[in-house]
Amino acid sequence: MARATDTGTTARRLCHLSGGFLRQRRLRRILQLAGYELRLGWPRAGDQVAVWGHAPRARRGEWLASRTGAPLVRIEDAFLRSVHPGRARGGPPIGLLLDERAMHYDPARPSRLERILAEDPLDDTALLNRARGAIARLREADLSKYNAHDPDLSPPPPGYVLVIDQTRDDAAVRIGGSDANTFREMLYHAQADHPGTPIVIKTHPDTASGARAGYFAAQSAETDPDRITLCTAPVSPHALLEGAVAVYTVSSQMGFEAIMAGHRPHVFGQPFYAGWGLSHDARPITRRQRHLTRTQLFAAAMILYPIWYDPCRDRLCTLEQAIDQLDAETRAWREDRRGWHARGMRLWKRGALNRFFGRYRAVRFDQGKRAPKDGRRLMTWAGHAAPGDGAVRVEDGFLRSSGLGAELVAPLSLVCDDLGIYYDPARESRLERLIAARAVLRPDQQTRAETLVAALRSGGVSKYNLQGAALPPLPDGRRILVAGQVEDDASIRAGATGAVRTNHDLLRAARAANPDAVILYKPHPDVEAGLRRGALPPDAAAGLADMVLHHADPVALLPEVQGLWTMTSLLGFEALLRGVPVTTLGAPFYAGWGLTDHRGPALPRRTARPGLAGLAHAALIDYPRYMDPLTGLPCPAEVIAERLRDRVHARGGLGIRLLAKAQGALASQAHLWR
């Protein structure tokens, strides 16, 4: 099926008789981007008729197509959908399947997916490498079609046979020629094939939520309570597959995921993944004779067959970009589903925090010292945290905003750290652990990190994205940029524990080590704005700095220098991303990994040696959470990089701007606003 986008070409009309299509705005938008126009009513010459899979209401469209002779197009959710099922407040799908031949679960006739599996070469190296990376990514992010898995729940002890239930009279069961007897037969064979082995029956999420009945109920386990367990809890499908010694299914998508997990499932229906030499098929489809690898099966079903949609950028996208978006949305649900108590949060921050973390339950703000007793997690701004308080530390991320935090511009990224906080080397942080884990990257991770870094460089994106003054002519010679900092900043208090703890000391150290270099001093923007401490005493730069660059864009400076000296400034990280050698005299998160000339305090825990891509992946992709200022959705780092490049940012209202001015007047107490 040709895939068109909204490039000005005439859209193909899809006529329908279903009110459901009228209610689903995202579905209509995906179809529009794919080159289709949904219309309610009778088709004209050249039109097609749209129906939703084999749902009961699809009969109206089937009648319309047979009456008029218009070709029928069946539409279904793609194999990655949303956090929750559609019937359980799942939100709109992130991808669709469009098929003019048949639905993938209809074995009576070959679907477009079956044609791809049977006829396409499926031997392109780039395609298969993408498939391998996506398989690993889905497993790492614990993503499935539906993703309301509780990460705190563990599967049963390993060594069980996993039997997968489905919803009663689902189209994939009914159209596939299966019924309740098929499920009884499957359970019988699972018991007979594995005598004495525990049986775990996994219910469908719709059954667990009460939206739809399944084929197995509590009495299934009661027939042999010592051996059969009904798993209704939202345990991760990946975790269940990990502990299984065998997998039995009729036609569930989880059978496909079992193949991706290395199983050869026993299949009692005729789903799309049966018949390719990757499953034990009770009812073989004789026309399927080709033997495929699991990577080829995945490439066809997940890359070549679906249409994927990026809701933040409002465009069709690749599978990888769909995974990025679904991962961000799923992470937000898993971390926020129980709600938060927040302490140590200034009034101006609370709106942004609620937008980030209150999507499912509004954040409760209090200043009390008692631990919450309502199941909510406890968070606190990192600068207000107390040892042993059990709170998750919250701080700004490294791609923050178009404007200063000290001017009360709301952040587009925040980090949550359950171990420590990235700027405090005294204790291990979650970021430190993530950096160590990224010492070795898969090819897809390497590519993603390098692509993101290239986008930051080409777009001139940094933490604050200030539009500084044009650079003046710079002196010739080997230029060293010295990054001034806020001297009462938490990163200085925690990370500058050596001899150099002030901007003046930093300048002296840089000059002493580079007597013949051109020293350029860049004050911190918060200090220049009069919002924070750290201004040099009068004439302090004389004889130490060849030039003080007030209000200059620090990112624009980086291509003009041959080195950067800093205590703990994030500008050092941004310099590394742009290939500038960095000398650290404090202990920032990016020091101690072999990527900087580290002259600060010893960092004995940091023994791993990640490359620059590994450092960037951990700090920019794994660690922060991002929120798109246009859609309000959780989003991946790449979306925020584009928003900051394009300076798309929702600034605070009049009250916030007045508060920012008041803060500037109280700059001598600016640390209170951190």
UniProtKB/TrEMBL annotation:
- Highest taxon in the source lineage: Bacteria
Q: Name one GO biological process term.
A: polysaccharide biosynthetic process
Q: Which Pfam families match?
A: Capsule_synth
Provide the protein name.
Capsular polysaccharide biosynthesis protein
The source organism is: Sediminimonas qiaohouensis
